[in-house]
Amino acid sequence: MPVAASAIYFLNLRGDVLINRLYRDDVGHAERYIFGRMLNSRGNMVDAFRMHIMQTKELGTCPVRQIGGCSFLYMRISNVYIVIVVSSNANVACAFKFVVEAVALFKSYFGGAFDEDAIRNNFVLIYELLDDIDNCTEIMDFGYPQNLSPEILKLYITQEGVRSPFSSKPSEKPVPNATLQVTGAVGWRREGLVYKKNEVFLDIVESVNLLMSSKGSVLRCDVTGKILMKCFLSGMPDLKLGLNDKIGLEKEAQLKSRPAKRTWTSNIHVTWYGPFSRSSSEICQAVAALGALDLPTYDIELTPSLCSCSAARRWRFWVNERGMSTPPAKDEGKGKNGKTIELDDVTFHQCVNLTRFNSEKTVSFVPPDGEFELMKYRITEGVNLPFRVLPTIKELGRTRMEINVKVKSVFGAKMFALGVVVKVPVPKQTAKTSFQTTSGKAKYNASIDSLVWKIRKFPGQTEATMSAEVELISTMGEKKSWNRPPIQMEFQVPMFTASGLRVRFLKVWEKSGYNTVEWVRYITRAGSYEIRC
Asked: Where is the MHD domain (predicted)?
């Protein structure tokens, strides 16, 4: 079911209209009653949204509200509300997906920013994206989402003086029609790209989420990761990415252990006019000389069958697909430690060939030009925690506390973590603090009621401790129990993955046969990394 949006509005936090576009005449200009009010203009539609949604306590509780005969689908991005108005039954998920992709498109044009100021400074460009019907490059046509690909739209709609980071050097060749580009087999990549140096940058970025008890047992742990790519490749290359996931390796081993497949090639035959004493080896050599078969690659069996001509014999060829797969490269193993992982949830970019992934469990794709997100994944089993935190908090009476926190890095000794921050919560009535640390610096932050311990560089397989004495302000009345919030951590560990994910190989094929340079980088960051104390 499509969206069939009647109108789209961009409002600020006060409800003022920044930009709007009417796609249908069933709302806005038609007479409609909403809670007893006749709506016959754009302002009345906005007034209805402002009065019945923005000025109520229900703002933010539900992104879909029905007012009279219209449904308002809204989302807040920064200090801007994007509102889609529909008058009929519509696909809500598709509408919000359109909003998310439209915001990503605007950010690519605005240099990464999307707020009220960016809209005011680029309203001409936004209207061009919303209304460019002549070039068939509008992002929505008659309420239906159309082309939202930055790689394609930047070929036709550009800002003066701003060059698209997705395109290569300007070409004098005429740009093909946008409709043909979008509806083609590879709509996310245009032809004719040329680079002096063909490079591929691959970043594996993971976020570790942890909830650990005060006794050191893991209550909840998972890893969410994404693979980011930046491609500067000429032509239309085919890429194949191999990971050390368990299913993919099992599928690869299954394919290698499978016996040679016997397939009938009906389009290859040889007819001899002469005596029947010809041997099959002579026939094979003749066929190979004609270029029909590659003898070193295939095993051939010949079965004679009589033709209508008594002086002719036709040979049928059975071709065994043996020796077709190239031997694995040195880096195509399970990883340095031989570990395999299980991916729980995987989401791919549209360029990935899902048919080959389902059959071979390999990620094959024709990449877009420039930077894009290839895939996202989640892992819940076999997580390698980069840090262990052992907190000890003692309450000495009603006015003093002793806090000891030991942090141990579990990753390799040759690695190191950057920007390590440990936030230890303390009561609000904290008056004075004193610290002793073996590494880094610590201080009390009254705005968040926490002791903040910062370590700029944390080597692997090492320990660091912090001891603090906290003096509290004595209060009259009964002593209230202090609900201890969990300790929080922030960090970034280069060349380390908490999931154990590794790139086994990254292959690039292009008909011109050029050489490529591949770069792979691993980064692990803290997501919600909490330890109860």
From this structure: 197-532
